[in-house]
C-alpha cells in the first residue's frame, strides 16, 4: 500500500484563505490592516524569488506589503537603521530580514535588533526562549507549517516517537521544541549521529531537515510512519527533498512531496504569524 500524500499546497491555500478572512474582519471591524515588511540585502537570486513571492502573497490576502532593498555592500548600520524604523512604524506588524545576510554582517546582531513582537520569523532570542519554555512565542514558519500538517493528519500526537534530522536554529531545533510541546518523545539527529538508519527506524514521525538530496531511503522508514520532508535540493532532476520519495512512499503511512509539501506552508505560516502579531499588538483575539 502506498502512503497518503500530504498536500501542502492545498493546505497552504486553506491557511491563506483563513488569513484573508481574518484580515478582512480586522479592516472592517477595527480599521486595521496588518502589515509585513521584508528587508532584502544584496541580490541573491534565491532570496529574490522568495521575497517576490512573499510580497505577492502578502498583498493577495489583503495585507500591506513593504519591501526594503539594500546593496550587497551596505554597512550593517544601514540595516540596523531600517530595522529600527520598522520597529517604530505602527503600520508594520511583522518584520522579516531575508537570510542569509552578506558575510560582513553579524546575523545574530541584526536579528536581535528586531522587536520580538514583530519578529514573524521567530528567530529573535526572546522568541526562541519563549518557545523553549513553552510560553506564547512567535514560532518559526517552517516548523510551524510542519506541525500544522502533522496535527491535521493525526489529531493528537501525544506519546509518538518523533525523530528530527537536522539541528539548525531555523528548522531542526524549533521543530523538536514544537513536537516536545505536543508530548512526543523527541530525538534530534545530526551529522554526528551514530546509526542514523536505526534511529530513524524507531520513529512514528520523521522530519528531515538536512539539505542532502534523497538521503533518507525508504528502508529507513518504519512501516506506516509519517514523513515530513523539509529539504529543498536543486539537482539535475529538478527539486528534490531529503527523503527518497519513490522508495519512502511505498513504506510510509503519509508523506509530504517536494515540491508541494512543506514549502508552500512556510509562506502561509508567515502570513498567519503577521496576523497573529497584529492581533497581539492591538489586544484583539488571535486567529486559531
Ligand atoms: P542547515 O544546513 O542549517 O542544517 C542542516 C542540518 O543537517 C545540520 O544540523 C546538520 O548537522 C544536519 N546534517 C548534515 N548532514 C547530515 C547527515 N549526513 N546526517 C544527519 N544530519 C546531517 O539547514 P537548514 O535547517 O537551514 O535546512 C535544511 C533543509 O531544509 C535544506 O534543504 C533547506 O533548503 C530546507 N529548508 C526548507 C524550507 C522550506 O520552506 N521548505 C525552509 C528552510 C529550509 P550538524 O549540525 O551536525 O552539521
TrEMBL record:
* The protein, known as: Bifunctional protein FolD
PROSITE patterns cross-referenced by the UniProt entry: THF_DHG_CYH_1 (PS00766), THF_DHG_CYH_2 (PS00767)
* Residues that coordinate or bind NADP(+): 166-168, 232
What CDD domains has UniProt attached to this entry? NAD_bind_m-THF_DH_Cyclohyd
Family membership noted in the UniProt record: Belongs to the tetrahydrofolate dehydrogenase/cyclohydrolase family.
What's the catalysed reaction? (6R)-5,10-methenyltetrahydrofolate + H2O = (6R)-10-formyltetrahydrofolate + H(+); (6R)-5,10-methylene-5,6,7,8-tetrahydrofolate + NADP(+) = (6R)-5,10-methenyltetrahydrofolate + NADPH
List, alphabetically, the GO terms of the cellular component aspect: cytosol
This protein's record includes keyword Cytoplasm: no
- Tell me the gene name: folD
Pathway annotation from the record: One-carbon metabolism; tetrahydrofolate interconversion
Q: Which residues form the Tetrahydrofolate dehydrogenase/cyclohydrolase NAD(P)-binding domain?
A: 140-280
Query: What are the alphabetically sorted keywords of the record?
Result: Amino-acid biosynthesis, Histidine biosynthesis, Hydrolase, Methionine biosynthesis, Multifunctional enzyme, NADP, One-carbon metabolism, Oxidoreductase, Purine biosynthesis
Give all residue intervals belonging to the Tetrahydrofolate dehydrogenase/cyclohydrolase catalytic domain. 6-121
Role, per record:
Catalyzes the oxidation of 5,10-methylenetetrahydrofolate to 5,10-methenyltetrahydrofolate and then the hydrolysis of 5,10-methenyltetrahydrofolate to 10-formyltetrahydrofolate.
Amino acid at each position: 500500500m502506498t502512503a497518503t500524500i500530504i498536500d501542502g499546497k492545498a493546505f497552504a491555500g486553506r491557511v491563506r484563505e483563513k488569513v484573508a478572512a481574518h484580515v478582512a474582519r480586522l479592516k472592517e471591524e477595527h480599521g486595521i490592516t496588518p502589515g509585513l515588511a521584508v528587508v532584502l540585502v544584496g541580490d541573491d537570486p534565491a532570496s529574490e524569488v522568495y521575497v517576490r513571492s512573499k510580497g505577492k502573497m502578502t498583498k493577495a490576502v489583503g495585507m500591506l506589503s513593504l519591501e526594503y532593498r539594500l546593496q550587497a555592500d551596505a554597512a550593517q548600520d544601514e540595516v540596523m537603521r531600517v530595522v529600527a524604523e520598522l520597529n517604530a512604524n505602527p503600520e508594520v506588524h511583522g518584520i522579516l530580514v531575508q537570510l542569509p545576510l552578506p558575510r560582513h554582517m553579524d546575523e545574530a546582531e541584526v536579528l536581535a535588533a528586531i522587536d520580538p513582537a514583530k519578529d514573524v520569523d521567530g528567530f529573535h532570542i526572546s522568541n526562541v526562549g519563549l518557545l523553549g519554555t513553552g510560553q506564547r512565542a512567535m514560532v518559526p514558519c517552517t516548523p510551524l507549517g510542519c506541525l500544522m500538517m502533522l496535527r491535521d493528519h493525526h489529531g493528537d500526537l501525544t506519546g509518538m516517537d518523533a525523530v528530527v534530522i537536522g539541528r539548525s536554529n531555523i528548522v531542526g531545533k524549533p521543530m523538536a521544541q514544537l513536537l516536545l510541546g505536543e508530548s512526543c518523545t523527541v530525538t534530534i539527529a545530526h551529522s554526528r549521529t551514530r546509526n542514523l538508519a536505526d534511529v530513524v527506524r524507531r520513529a512514528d514521525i520523521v522530519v528531515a531537515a538536512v539539505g542532502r538530496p534523497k538521503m533518507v531511503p525508504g528502508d529507513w522508514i518504519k512501516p506506516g510512519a509519517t514523513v515530513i520532508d523539509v529539504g529543498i535540493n536543486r539537482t539535475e532532476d529538478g527539486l528534490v527533498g531529503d527523503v527518497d520519495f519513490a522508495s519512502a512512499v511505498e513504506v510510509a503511512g503519509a508523506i509530504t512531496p517536494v515540491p508541494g509539501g512543506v514549502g508552500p506552508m512556510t509562506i502561509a505560516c508567515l502570513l498567519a504569524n503577521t496576523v497573529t502579531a497584529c492581533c497581539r499588538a492591538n489586544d484583539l483575539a488571535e486567529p486559531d
